[in-house]
Amino acid sequence: MKRMLAIxxxxxxxxxxxxxxxxxxxxxxxxxxxxxxxxxxELAGTYDITVWCADNVVELTKKQIADFNxxxxxxxxxxxxxEPVGEGDAAxxxxxxxxAGADIYCFAQDQFARLVQANALSKLGAAAAENVRTNNAAGxxxxxxxxxxxxxxxxxxxxxxxMYYDKSxxxxxxxxxxxxxxxxxxxxxxxxxxxxxDSGWYMAGWFFGTGCVSxxxxxxxxxxxxxxxxxxxxxxxxxxxGMNKLMTSPMFxxxxxxxxLDSGAAIVVSGTWDSGTAKGILGDNLGVAELPxxxxxxxxxxxxxxxxxxxxxxxxxxxxxxxxxxxxxAQYLTSAEAQVERFEAVGWGPANLTAAASEAVQADPILSxxxxxAVYAVPQGQVHGQWWDITKPLxxxxxxxxxxxxxxxxxxxxxxxxxxxxxxxxxxKLSWSVIGMYNxxxxxxxxxxxxxxxxxxxxxxxxxxxxEGIWKTEKAYEIPEGCEFKCRQAKGWDNAFPADNFKVExxxxxxxxxxxTSGEITLIPA
Length: 526
Fold this sequence. Notes:
There is one protein chain. The chain is 36% helix and 24% strand. By secondary structure, the protein is of the alpha+beta class. The chain starts with 8 loop residues before the first helix and ends with a strand.
């Protein structure tokens, strides 16, 4: 992959320490004037930059950049091209070609480690880092930290899950008890949707609720160096028993979309991104609440959650002055003022403590549920890309288990798979494979010449290195039109192409080839 040229570190750090000084809530505040006084107006000028953000905040971001231009006292004018690139896709596009990527970009917190590894994030200066630590929720600070350094700015702190429920089916007095909720759904023949069968993100909350931990450690280069995971402990067995109780109900539905409220569900565990859908379907019957408690062996445990975040990153620059300007703008875009404005426009929950304490945020019923559930949530931190696949068989095994021994075996197998991530050979770490989807109802699936069928996003097809930077599947596969797949490295998601899946336009029998430098995927007819 292309990497940025080495930065003139001394110059960058000197400028970023000055440019990032102060509170960041308003570039015209006295603390921000230090830059102009100290540098003699060195930051003044017009800067052409590219910014990536979610589609629904493109226009707001343009406005906020215009506000920054009007308010800053350093003579800075930002001429920004603002492009709609989703937080989940930004990292893949950045690491494909860092130089061609945006100067400032918004990204999902679970992409942080791979961006640090790819040298796609500019490290914060001391003053900027202290500003982030002081003015943001503790979990968001952890989310932007690798080793002892900070590499991004927190933008939201609302990426966790809670319950949407139909008040015409679920009595308000039952929302705190899993057992009562299951009974209500079974009595009404309505589904309880909670995606814990194949999603580690949703599944983890049960384990956190019983006191388990799963914490990955990274060094300053973003490499994973250790993990502390206690899901296989006695407390983990309690969590598995609670999950099994829900998953064996005839009304359990392994789903997380609020759209299920229009398809027979009375309860859907989801997040703020689904609020519009939930309101549109249920109207006045919409109920919102934190997750319930469950009972095992006479003791009650409150279901927890992973809490993730949206972050803003600055691309490393060879021009130290431009780098300092970008850090100033990033601070403004993540200031209390900007976060409240973003909440009012699209409902995103602020990471900034002052913004989160504002009257408007506190009065919002959706964010009230977020705040209530956040008490039981664990900051997501950095998670190894393979972990998401490791949890898939765990959820299925917990659902299928009929005894404590079978539950414990599922937990032991899970722990062994985690240990294996640190035992990979260098060859395995660098190798690529293909993983894809099929829709069984439409006959979408991979088959090779031996008519082997591959399952839905669970089996990797091996690739071999045919020349430097070029990988190709060992076999040719019959692939139908419309089938989608990705190429991924080390059977994890830290490095995967393309961002939005590769979609086959014409059915045929193909070898799949990847250029790991550019991320380009080619279908080669057999």
